[in-house]
Amino acid sequence: MRTLAIVFFLGTMLSAYGQHTLNSPNGKFKMVFTIEKGRPTYALELNDSPVIAKSFLGLDLLDTESLLAQFQIVDTQRTTLDETWEPVLGEYKEIRNHYNELLVAMEQQGSNRLMHIRFRLFNDGLGFRYEFPEQPNLTYFIVEDERTQFAMTGDHTAFWIPGDYDTQEYDYTHSKLSEIRGKMKKAITPNASQTSFSPTGVQTALLMKTDKGTYINIHEAALVDYSCMHLELDDDNLVFESHLTPDALGNMAYMQTPTQTPWRTVIASNKASDILLSTLTLNLNEPCAYEDTSWIKPVKYMGVWWEMITGKGSWAYTDALNSVKLGKTNYVHTLPNRTHSANTDNVKDYLDFASQHGFDALLVEGWNEGWEDWFGKSKDYVFDFMSPYPDFDIEELELYAQDKGIALMMHHETSGSVRNYERHLDQAYAFMQQHGYNSVKSGYVGDIIPRGEYHYGQWMVDHYLYALKKAGAYKIMVNAHEAVRPTGLSRTYPNLIGNESARGTEYEAFGGNKVDHTTILPFTRLIGGPMDYTPGIFEMDVSKLNPKNKSWVNSTLARQLALYVTMYSPLQMAADLPEHYQQHLDAFQFIKEVALDWDVTMVLAAEPGDFITYARKEKGKDNWFIGNTNDENPRTSKLAFDFLDPEKTYLLTLYRDSKDAHYKNNPKGYAVEKFKVGSRSKLQVYSAPGGGFAISILDVTEQPEKLKGLRRLKAY
């Protein structure tokens, strides 16, 4: 890692109430900090145009004077850092961390309490946080609310989901800020656990676009030992204020100095692609916590999952039990329902197919006792994460998977009973090690136990990190579903190889996602880290799996392939059933070939809510993959390949929508075409409504025969 750091100490000679300016390394951003009548404020400009108007900072504290006013500056420090670091897994081989920093040390008159605000200004945006040094007048305190403001400069267009303490699984609403209140009721759709709090409350990462064409993203980074931040809009003045997730008592966070809050982030650009390419969130997190990361690897997996999601099969072993008590209920003498998907023979069939086609792992859900009464019972001792059903032979399947050269992926559904999960964690992870599982999908469906806690409060934020660090001690990778949205912690703990934390593919079997959903998620949810979106559905008519389920997957088959490129994750699932892939092996080839870890990431075209086209270079190889996801409008993309090595000719395989393809009327209309391609080649590709395209560009220098007989794409 190459690092250059310069620190300037300016001392107390500076004015206690003066204006302090911080510029980004490239000079395009300017942040201005002031103390106005004792209240700290900041503002942010991009290219001399305001992005965040003057906004107040501070916190409300419980049972004591709040940290909002009566401040004076006692010291400032300026720092410049320019370093390059390599992520264990990621979108880039290396990432530049280059910022100018201003630390403002303040003292509150009367109470003599100290509060610092640290600003870091990058070439892609701003990060800032509150810091509380060890001090005699402030040691233990309770945050009643955080009062960080983000004052907007106009009635921007926003892509938002409702503020909620328990779920992010909503479709995005596209509206003016002033329209949020009127659209909120319709935006709140049913979920297994949800707690909305305001008619103008929204979640981060929030994307906006100004009338002048500036894109603004507000989020947070390094969420540790604090509660998750939402944004509540004062729609009369168009000012967002932070709104933290409370605990069962209504308190937001419990603090002990020395301590700090997470970073509050503002990414901005006049190009949509710059939002997608920002590394600010990762850069605000701490370096990797592990010395040995050799056990952390990308995972391409299949799963005994979609058949249960659609209702074709079941998680539960029997329909004959209304009440289960682990260790007392005897399943051996219970009538099986014959729909239980996680049975040994069915799992072997999946293992055969996944192994044949080169997958790394197979997820199996519903393997363990307790699914008969797992949900909605406020049940504490719901699973033990170690007791298989009678028809799931864990030892036999362990040996079978080893023989096939494939790993089994563990599933730990907690049903929100987090206290129960923590009491079992060591045994559960040791059990995984014993049986050859090196990764786990954890789940937190339903209301949280301890009762009254929320999914995104400080208590649960601490739990998610506790489980992740505990998994690291056992060299286990984690894919957490229903957990708090990611904030770049995958830099520090790269065994966090995936999160759900948004509305994913499963909702296509619950009535369907909006057609433009995947053109928005990379601008919002993926700003914080990779998502286990679970793409790869080839049969869009869900009723063909379960006649009672009339849902429809709102996508063409070609777009399902594109999602492996546009929805970044080192963990990617081929979510459909093997028999559906058998019917389209030519398209399935892309899923088999597409890489998961990258040296280079480029955005060829993007507009939130409309389309995104990514190009990515495979880690350590000269292979490229391109993906385009499109909304409900047909489009034609013009591609140039000037990023290719000009000395080489590559094999390009195009997976595209047919001219009559349509996400509703003809989702399986696709074509596969092969060409020779070079750095001067060009290509036009059609994307159908709800469609897209995927492209593999393979270096076949050592296999020139693969180019024989292929037409070369035209050059400029």
Would you kindly provide a written description of the structure presented here, covering whatever features stand out?
The chain is an alpha+beta fold. Helix 7 packs parallel to helix 8 and helix 9 runs parallel beside helix 11. A hairpin with a 4-residue loop joins strand 8 and strand 9. 51% of the residues are buried. Strands 1, 7, 8, 9, 10, 13, 14, 16, 17, 21 and 22 form an eleven-stranded antiparallel beta sheet that branches. The chain has a seven-stranded parallel beta sheet with strand order 28-27-26-25-24-23-29.
Helical fraction equals: 10-25%
Residue windows where pLDDT falls under 50 for at least 5 positions: 7-14
Amount of beta strand: 25-35%
> How many extended strands?
37
Query: Mean of residue pLDDT?
Result: 96
Structural class determined from secondary elements: alpha+beta
Number of helices: 11
Tell me the quaternary state: single chain
Q: What is the rounded Rg?
A: 26 Å
Overall morphology = globular
Distance between the termini: 40 Å
Taking the sheet with the most strands, its summary is: 11 strands, antiparallel
